[in-house]
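Annotated sample (chain length 279).
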Amino acid sequence: MDKVLRRHENHNRPLVGPEPNVLGLVYFNLVRLGRHEEFVQAVPGFETVFVVMSGNCSIEVDGELFSDVGQRQDIWSGNADSVYAPSGARVRVVSNTDGTEIAVGGGKCETRFKAFRVPPAEVEMVDVGSPETHSHRRIFHILGHNAAGRAGNLLVSELYGDGGCWAGYPPHKHDTENPPEETQFEELYHYRFRPENGFGALLRFYEDGTSECYVTRCGDTFLIDKGLHPLVTSPGHEEYIFTILVGKHHRSLIQNFQEEYRHLISSIPGINAMRDSWK
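Output written by the structure step:
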C-alpha cells in the first residue's frame, strides 16, 4: 500500500487495514449512507471509534444501542458525536438521514473494553499557534484524556487549520520508543478543505537526510510511519484533518521536536498545552 491514498470512492470498504500495510497498527474507513441504509462491521484485533462527520444515525455495538448519533450538518458546524467500539466488536450502523458520513478510526488492541459514547460536549479543544506566527490551528480531541482507562492506545482527533498556516510545527517525530523523550506512534491524516479546491503540502524528513514533499488535496489520506512531518495550508482556505494516532507500546504520545527548531516552542502559543493534551 502506498503512503498516499488519493481521493476515491471506497464504497464503504476499509481504506487502511486490517491487513498488513505501511501502518500495521492503524485502521481507517469512510462510510457513506443514505436514509435507512445500514453498514455492519467487525474488525478482529482492532478497537474503533465511529465519528459522525455529517448526518445522523443509530449505532449498535454488540447489541448495545446508541441512538440519534450525529448533531452536525457537516465537519464545519460543531463538535463531533462519536461511539467507541471495543476490539472485534460487531457494529451495526443505520442512517436516519440522507448524506450520513462516518469516519471510522481504529488501532490494534488486545484488550476488550466497554463501548461508550463521546458526545459533542465531551470533546476537548486545544488552541495552538497564532495568526502572527502563521501556525494557528485548533485540535479537537475525540478520543484523548477522556478515554484513559477505557480504551487502548488509540487517539483520535479533528484538526482545523487556518489558511496560510503551518501545523505539525515545529517539526517533530514519534517513530522511536525512547521515553521520556519520545514514544512510538503511527499516524494517519485524512484531509478536507473549505472551499474544496483548497490544497496544502506535507513535508517528510528522515534521519538519513532524505526528504519528500506531497501536495495535499480534499479527500486525500496520508500514512505516516516515521520521520518529521510538518504541513501547511494554502491561504484563503480552511483545512480539516481527521487524525488517527496509535501507540505501539503506550497510550501517552510524546513528540520529539527537531533540535534545531526547539527554540520556537516558546514563541508559538499553545505548544506546551498541545503536548500535555496528548500525554
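Annotation: The mean pLDDT is 96.
Annotation: Residues 123-279 form a domain with the Jelly Rolls fold (CATH 2.60.120.10).
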